[in-house]
Amino acid sequence: MSARTVDDKMTVKEVIADLKVAPSTFYRWRQLGKGPRSIKLPNGDVRIRRSEYERWLTEREDAA
Question: Ranges for the Helix-turn-helix domain (predicted)?
Fold first, then answer.
């Protein structure tokens, strides 16, 4: 098994499982431009770089 890196690509399924949100919520965020930046593959699949996902989450943290 290989170690994960910050440039690993996550599937939508992995992202919504981590966030514990419905697929419709994630796709609505994407449509509104509020989701993490993603990569649309030629076959229509979507991937999110792990580094981008982590950056996106960090931006949403409340200021202490």
Answer: 10-60
Asked if the structure places residue 39 within a domain, the reply is yes
Q: How far apart are CA 7 and CA 54, in angstroms?
A: 11
pTM of the model: 0.82
**Upper half-sphere CA count for residue 21 (Cβ side, 13 Å):** 12
DSSP conformational letter for 35: S
As a whole-number percent, the residues of the chain with pLDDT over 90 amount to 83
